[in-house]
Design a protein that fits this description.
- This protein is an all-alpha fold and 368 residues long.
- The protein has a domain of 182 residues: MetI-like fold, CATH 1.10.3720.
- Helix content is 68%, strand content 0%.
- It has 14 helices and no strands.
- The longest helix has 31 residues.
- The model has no long low-confidence stretch (mean pLDDT 85).
C-alpha cells in the first residue's frame, strides 16, 4: 500500500451552503413552516413601528432650545430632558460642588474596573478592601464636613447619582452581611441559626415599601431620646437589610450546590472554619450563584426608585417634579420617562456584561 494514503489530508472547508448569514437565517428563521410564519409576522411588526418610532425619536424631534416654546411638531421634545438634565442627574446638590458627586461615581467605576482587570493577588489586596470602604468615603465626600468642604445636607442629594450610589453602597455592605446570614442559617448552633432565619425571612417577606416607611417613620422610635439619625442613612440601612435577606438565600442555594467533597477536602488539609468558607467555598459559591446574584443586584437597583414614596428626590421623583413645573406643562411625560428608562437599562445591561466577565474569569470546567 502506498505510504501517501496514510498521510492525513487537510480538512476541507465547510460547504458554502452551510455557513454565512444565509445559512444562519435558513437554520434559525426559516427552518419550518411555523418558524417562517413567526419570522414574517415579527418582521412585519417591526416594519410597521420602527419608521414611526425613529421619526418620533430623531427625525421630527426637537433638540435645540431651552424652553417649552422650542417644542414644536409631533416629535419628541428632548429640550425638556436637556433643560432638566442637571436636576435629573444630581438633584438639588450645590452647583459649585458637583465635582464631589462626579468623583464618587468615577471612583465606583474605577474600583469595578480594577476588580475585573487586576491580577488575582492585587485584586484581593486592593480592589476588595476599596470596595468595602467606598460607601463611607462617599458619605464623607458628599457631606463635606470632615474634609473642611462646604457642608451639603442630604436633603439636597438626589437625581440619578443618588440611585446609583445608594444601590452600590447597599450592595457593597450587604454582600458580606448576607454571606454571614447564610452561614448562620446553616450553622449547627441553634441560637445563631434561629436569629438568621428570623432576619432572612422577615426582610424577604415584608414589601420594600413597608420597610421604607418603617425606616423613615418607625425606626427613630427605637433610638435613645435626642438621637437624630438622618433619613437617608435610615433608608440605606433598610436597603442593606432588605438586600441581605435576598442575597442570603442566593448564597444558601450556592452552598447546597457545592459537592460535599469540597467541604471534606478542606477539612482534611486542616483548614479552619473561616479559612474553609472564605478560601474554598465562597469563590465556588459566587461562580455558581452569579446569575442569581446579578438578578438580585438589578432588583435592588430598580427598587431605589421607591425612595420617591418617602420624599427622597431620586431621578423618578425629580422627573415628576419637573413635569409639574409651571414652565413645562405641555405634557412631556413620555420624554421624561423614556429618558429614565434608558438610563436604567444602560446600567442594568452594563451590570450584566460585568457579571458575564466575572463568570468567564471563574470558569474552571476547561470547556473550549
Amino acid at each position: 500500500m502506498n505510504m501517501k494514503e496514510f498521510i492525513a489530508k487537510p480538512a476541507k472547508p465547510a460547504p458554502s451552503s452551510a455557513v454565512g448569514p444565509v445559512a444562519w437565517m435558513r437554520e434559525n428563521l426559516f427552518s419550518s413552516i411555523l418558524n417562517t410564519a413567526c419570522t414574517v409576522v415579527f418582521v412585519a411588526f417591526l416594519v410597521s413601528i420602527i419608521p414611526a418610532l425613529f421619526d418620533w425619536f430623531f427625525w421630527s424631534a426637537n433638540f435645540a432650545g431651552a424652553t417649552q416654546a422650542a417644542c414644536v411638531g409631533d416629535g419628541a421634545c428632548w429640550v425638556f430632558t436637556k433643560a432638566w438634565f442637571q436636576q435629573l442627574m444630581y438633584g438639588s446638590y450645590t452647583d459649585g460642588e458637583l465635582w464631589r458627586v462626579n468623583i464618587c461615581v468615577i471612583s465606583l467605576f474605577a474600583v469595578i474596573y480594577a476588580a475585573t482587570k487586576l491580577p488575582k493577588d492585587y485584586r484581593n489586596k486592593i480592589a476588595i478592601p476599596l470596595f468595602l470602604v467606598l460607601p463611607f468615603i462617599w458619605i464623607i465626600i458628599l457631606n463635606g464636613k470632615l474634609l473642611g468642604l462646604e457642608h451639603v445636607s442630604t436633603d439636597y442629594w438626589g437625581g440619578f447619582a443618588l440611585n446609583v450610589l445608594m444601590a452600590a453602597a447597599s450592595i457593597i455592605v450587604a454582600f458580606p452581611l448576607s454571606f454571614l446570614w447564610a452561614l448562620g442559617r446553616r450553622s449547627e448552633m441553634p441560637f445563631a441559626r434561629t436569629v438568621c432565619v428570623i432576619l432572612i425571612e422577615f426582610f424577604r417577606g415584608v414589601p420594600v415599601l413597608a420597610l421604607f416607611f418603617m425606616g423613615s417613620v418607625m425606626l427613630p422610635l427605637f433610638f435613645p431620646e435626642g438621637t437624630n439619625v438622618d433619613k437617608l442613612i435610615r433608608v440605606w440601612i433598610v436597603l442593606i437589610l432588605f438586600m441581605s435577606g435576598y442575597m442570603a438565600e442566593v448564597f444558601r442555594g450556592g452552598f447546597q450546590a457545592i459537592p460535599q467533597g469540597q467541604y471534606e477536602a478542606a477539612d482534611s488539609i486542616g483548614l479552619s472554619y473561616w479559612q474553609k468558607n472564605l478560601l474554598i467555598i465562597l469563590p465556588q459559591n459566587i461562580k455558581i450563584s452569579m446569575p442569581n446574584i446579578l438578578a438580585t443586584f438589578i432588583m435592588l437597583f430598580k427598587n431605589t426608585t421607591f425612595l420617591l414614596i418617602i420624599g427622597i428626590f431620586e431621578i423618578l421623583s425629580t422627573t415628576q417634579a419637573a413635569l409639574t413645573n409651571s414652565n413645562w406643562l405641555g405634557g412631556h411625560s413620555t420624554e421624561g420617562y423614556v429618558f429614565v428608562a434608558l438610563l436604567f437599562w444602560i446600567c442594568c445591561f452594563s451590570m450584566s456584561m460585568i457579571s458575564n466577565s466575572i463568570e468567564r474569569k471563574l470558569e474552571t470546567s476547561h470547556r473550549n
